[in-house]
Amino acid sequence: MRRGMFRSVVTTLVLVLLTTAGxxxxxxxxxxxxxxxxxxxxxxxxxxxALTACNGxxxxxxxxxxxxxxxxxxxxxxxxxxxxxxxxxxxxxIIAESSSTCLSAGQQANANWSxxxxxxxxTKLCTAxxxxxxxxxxxx
Length: 140
Fold this sequence. Notes:
The protein is of the alpha+beta class and 140 residues long. The chain has one helix spanning 3-26, and strands at 30-35, 38-43, 49-55, 58-65, 68-77, 82-84, 86-90, 93-97, 101-103, 108-118, 124-129, 137-139.
């Protein structure tokens, strides 16, 4: 590889690295700087994190720090008129339910479980709404 071409490749890589770090820094995930000719790139772990998943008409957002879940929210959109409630699953076992609500076709429902606690590493957390398609899952 020619010297000029090598310098160009290195410059491009540094710019990509700094741009990526800038995007991640905006999200609070990383920082980058140039110190005495060396690129310093630091990735930080955001606390808390948010795990999101959607399946069918249902979505969930789990706010967690490692295996400690601080909030578990779910929403769904009714394809037709239905009375429903959210079910929260830990490894395919129902561990909690929301209150019931009746929806018209196209209406959205939300349920929120504040501070559900700590789960073992590798636990699969899912939600479903009775009578409505979809069962999103995340692993903590």
